[in-house]
């Protein structure tokens, strides 16, 4: 990662060698002879890293390091010390230096240290910017993020919040579908009404039917009193049907009729009761595929999917990972009474590198754990779960040196399709969209590769 490097070195030949060597490696070096001159430059200009010798006439490099850490803590300082002088190196680290390197200077080793220092500063700046952005987020209904994919969801929520059109929210498990549903409710004209939520996968069919539509006394065993269903309870507000893709087939026509007629019939009764609730449904399933396979009614699918709001997986939201991490860190710090200000740059780097298969829910769990364990004001790498600390991104194709290990173009395509399917949680609809092909073409390619039984 190239960056602007301020070189502080009193020996002219060494200074020239460092300038020339770092320029060739893509850095933008600026050199000066004394610590006093360096302090003036740090105030007047912006540098990504300061590289300073320790032994110089006048102010020492150690004193310079202390002054920079005090006045410009955002700029990492790398010190150059004599070979074997570990006491001096330790003193520099205690003074706030980011790292040190020994003489004679190995340019390759120096470049690695400087690249890490520049990246360290970039991550610190990103965390600072995101903390500032978090304070400016305003009322987003609990949806935290600035990525284009999430902004698109924000925009759609705002556009349909005040209408009663049925909305289907899709996305992987843990992406915040209920948060989006609540945002639709709180931003719309029904915000003073009740928000009622039910998980359609959480109970058996008869109990789910009773919960949704209600029942009269004696309708079934244990029905000792008449009970109003959730459709009627949500009148004036919003009814959120979570995991609607898990709705039993026997209940689907009854739900369809309720949506069409805006009336429900209580179990054990011949009378129908009107309701006035906005219906929002959510699923992590591929409902189009479920329709094709006969597991979900096509007419119900189109009745629910009038407006589709698709929530992106966390791995597709870029730096939203850091914004959410800062948000959760501040939330759990307040709740536990601990002084935790945010993330260390090294922890931020690990969080950005991880794939987050459990999405926002997994990140929230990770940060809650880190806040509980940390002994510092910033969350460190050691506070993160082992799976995050040790994560290595998978390669579509490993590097090979043996020509016999090369694969055909067809095999490259097959592996990439599987990588995309893995990234989108197995959704063939979304995978086809990313790959730029229709679903039938994707099925044909999977079948050709012997993958016709790949899970949807």
Properties at a glance:
Rossmann fold; disordered C terminus; single chain; five-stranded parallel beta sheet; 16 strands
Describe the protein's architecture and organization.
The chain is α/β, with parallel strands linked by helices and 456 residues long. The protein folds into four domains: 4-133, Rossmann fold (3-Layer(aba) Sandwich); 150-310, 3-Layer(aba) Sandwich (Rossmann fold); 314-389, Orthogonal Bundle (Helicase, Ruva Protein, domain 3); 403-448, Arc Repressor Mutant, subunit A (Orthogonal Bundle), CATH 1.10.10. Helices cover 46% and strands 14% of the residues. The protein has 19 helices and 16 strands. The protein has helices at 12-24, 35-44, 61-71, 86-94, 107-135, 148-160, 177-187, 205-213, 230-233, 252-261, 287-292, 298-304, 320-336, 345-353, 359-373, 386-389, 409-423, 428-435, 439-448; strands at 4-8, 28-32, 49-53, 77-81, 99-102, 167-170, 195-199, 214-215, 227-228, 238-242, 263-265, 272-274, 278-283, 307-310, 342-343, 378-379. A five-stranded parallel beta sheet has the order 2-1-3-4-5, sandwiched between helices. Strands 7-10-13-6-14 form a five-stranded parallel beta sheet. Strand 1, helix 1 (12-24) and strand 2 (28-32) form a beta-alpha-beta unit. Helix 5 packs across helix 14. Mean pLDDT is 85; it is low at 136-140 and 452-456.
**How are the strands of the biggest sheet laid out side by side?**
2-1-3-4-5
Which homologous superfamily in CATH is the superfamily of the largest domain? Answer: P-loop containing nucleotide triphosphate hydrolases
CATH class of the largest domain: Alpha Beta
Distance between the termini: 40 Å
Helix content: 40-55%
Strand fraction: 5-15%
| Count of extended strands | 16
Give the overall shape. Answer: elongated
Major sheet: size, sense and barrel closure? 5 strands, parallel
Strand-pairing-aware structural class = alpha/beta
* Overall structural domain count: 4
Q: Can you tell me the residue ranges where pLDDT is under 50 for at least 5 consecutive residues?
A: 136-140, 452-456
CATH architectural arrangement of the largest domain: 3-Layer(aba) Sandwich
Our count of helices gives: 19
Rounded to the nearest angstrom, the radius of gyration is 29 Å
The chain-level mean pLDDT equals: 85
Fill in the CATH topology of the largest domain: Rossmann fold
């Amino acid at each position: 990662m190239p960056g602007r490097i301020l070189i502080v070195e009193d020996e002219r030949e060494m200074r020239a060698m460092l300038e020339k060597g770092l320029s060739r490696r893509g850095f933008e070096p600026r050199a000066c002879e004394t610590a006093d001159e360096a302090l003036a430059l740090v105030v007047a200009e912006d540098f990504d890293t300061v590289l300073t010798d320790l032994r110089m006439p006048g102010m020492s490099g150690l004193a310079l390091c202390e002054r920079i850490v005090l006045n410009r803590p955002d700029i990492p300082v790398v010190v150059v010390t004599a070979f074997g002088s570990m006491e001096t190196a330790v003193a520099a680290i205690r003074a706030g230096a980011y790292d040190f390197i020994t003489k004679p200077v190995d340019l390759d080793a120096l470049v690695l240290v400087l690249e890490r220092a520049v990246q360290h500063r970039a991550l610190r700046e990103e965390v600072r910017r995101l903390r500032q952005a978090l304070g400016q987020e305003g009322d987003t209904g609990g949806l935290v993020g600035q990525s284009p994919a999430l902004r698109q969801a924000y925009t759609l929520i705002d556009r349909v919040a005040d209408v009663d059109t049925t909305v289907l929210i899709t996305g992987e498990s843990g992406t915040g579908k209920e948060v989006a549903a609540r945002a639709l409710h709180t931003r719309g004209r029904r915000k003073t009404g009740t928000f009622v939520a039910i998980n359609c996968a959480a109970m058996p069919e008869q109990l789910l039917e009773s919960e949704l539509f209600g029942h009269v006394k004696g309708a079934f065993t244990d029905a000792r009193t008449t009970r109003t269903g959730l459709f009627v309870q949500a009148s004036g507000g919003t009814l959120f049907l979570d995991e609607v893709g898990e709705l039993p087939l026997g209940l689907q026509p009854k739900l369809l009729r309720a949506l069409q007629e805006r009336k429900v019939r209580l179990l054990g009764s011949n009378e129908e009761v009107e309701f006035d609730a906005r219906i929002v449904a959510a699923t992590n399933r591929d409902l189009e595929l479920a329709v094709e396979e006969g597991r979900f009614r096509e007419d119900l699918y189109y009745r629910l999917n009038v407006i589709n709001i698709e929530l992106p997986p966390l791995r597709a939201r870029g730096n939203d990972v850091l914004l959410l991490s800062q948000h959760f860190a501040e939330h759990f710090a307040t709740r536990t009474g601990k002084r935790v200000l945010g993330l260390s740059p090294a922890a931020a780097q690990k969080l950005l590198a991880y794939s987050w298969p459990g999405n926002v829910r997994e990140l929230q769990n990770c940060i809650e754990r880190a806040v509980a364990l940390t002994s510092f004001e910033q969350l460190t790498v050691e506070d993160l779960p082992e799976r995050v600390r040790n994560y290595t991104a998978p390669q579509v194709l490993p590097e090979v040196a043996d020509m016999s290990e090369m694969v055909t173009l067809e095999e490259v395509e097959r592996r990439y399709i599987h990588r995309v399917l893995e990234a989108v949680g197995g959704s063939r609809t979304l995978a086809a969209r990313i790959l730029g092909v229709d679903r039938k073409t994707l099925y044909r390619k999977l079948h050709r590769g012997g993958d016709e039984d790949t899970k949807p």
